[in-house]
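ugh finaly. both done.
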Amino acid sequence: MNRRTAKPETTVVCGINAVATLLERSAQRVVEVCLQDNLGAKRLGRIGPFLEQTAVTVTLVPVSKLDELAGTHRHQGVVARIKGSAVLGEHEASDLLEQLENPLVLVLDGIEDPHNFGACLRSANAAGADLVVTARSRNVGLTPTVSKVASGAAEVQPLAQVANLARYMGTLRDLGVWLVGTDGGASQTIYNTDLRGPIGLVLGSEGRGIRRLTRESCDAIVSLPLLGTVESLNVSVATGICLYEAVRQRTT
């Protein structure tokens, strides 16, 4: 699954699984779905049920048109044009959280590798995170590589980019979100930390970790036990571990 800019006001999502996920979770953002005019019964059977449950416009086009829309990305005979970007502003993000009883938030501080960011978005979506928050100027944006690695999550996962991460973390606390940062040197581990209430899990880049102001904005600092010889985990791996520990506690 991949994404690229088709027109200034729209974005395209390519691939059967990515478009199906988009139709299931955010159909209101879809402007049009372009299907290969000789798609074939097997592929049509995979995307058809998702098209039938929405009122989205479907256009049959030759494969050359899909190639043009998708560029170098694999489309499997299916391309959706969607409205703008999935990125929320600070006020929109806060409005979203105010509507939730027990939000699970992922705060990422300075993730510059698009593969790591895409993997974090995929894990966040899989774990049911309500919101991912990043700094506008210190995090990679929604690039085609991010979208490809995220495998459909980049188009449906609520994501907020904020001007000042530490300041917005204060807003999260005002909204009742308890912020748990990660640091390899912390004596308290993620496993003996209560993650059942409104939680914001805060993770930084693999090299630098979370920055000083970000750390000072956390309510607690925890570690992930490293029992072997490695000194740190890839941030996307650490993100998945933390998110699913929160999921485990919330569902048992």
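ok and the 2nd:
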Amino acid sequence: MISDDVGVVAIGRNEGERLIGCLASVKSNTDNIVYVDSGSTDGSIARARQTGVYVVTLDSTKPFSAARARNEGFAALKLLKPDIRFVQFIDGDCIMVQDWLNKALTFLKQRTDVGIACGRRREQYPTASIYNQLCDFEWDTPLGEASACGGDALVRVEAFETVGGFRSQLMAGEEPELCVRLRNLGWKVWRLDAEMTRHDAAMKRFAQWWVRSVRAGYGCAEVSRLHKASPLRIGARELASVVCWAGIMPLTIGIGALIHPAVLWATLIYILQICRIAFLLGPTSFKSWKFAPLIVLAKFAEFQGVTKYYYRQWRGQSGRLIEYK
């Protein structure tokens, strides 16, 4: 059992057996575990209680979000253990690697300037679909000081409380948004050369991958707007790329084609972009040529998410959970 100054907050919604595996993977490290449920209807709440963890059920009259779930889980953990110094956040569809928490704790205790430590999240079933493979590829980010973390990360309580935790209203992109506020105050985010979690994306259909990409675009737009005046300009470059490739360029080609059909040849730029990405990933790898078309196509799904966000803003509507499974 690891030191008593660390706890775990797991969040989930209709994760079924994945949740039970998640909770079992953390129980050997600490008894300070809070599970937060966002309106599950599959018996997750009862089964989580049977494992002996403390369960928080979110009020369904307020919009669900991962950010809200993590904040309420953190608050519950602090009530249970007021002297807690570190909190491991983990999604309910992930299994924690057994030696991760010890490695991450050792690092954070040595590096008091680091507010968040994360490691390598891997897809548990990468061969199940190309979409699972792409997830695994996306999570393989550079080691060392990072600009952001994902949903699984070990957080220093002092740093987390200083910035007031996650923004509960965010439907996506809450982790990089938290990280930019931490970095603005001088805290560092660090990715360790260590295995952290195994994730079950459970994406076997194109429609699931598309919705996940829509959510990414939605989060990018919201976070970029929140921090448009920040010198770090989080999400600005990604948003510009989405608008250019999936908004401005198709519109320009479409208008141009009305003037002269030869303008339609400009659509070949997307083929060139696919080839460019494949060469950057490694032209001799079959995976590169599988991933590149999806990376380009994702721009259009993300653009849908961007327009969804701004439409809701225009209508004065609050965000709603975007689920892909």
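summary for the 2nd one i guess: The chain has two domains: 6-202, 205-325.
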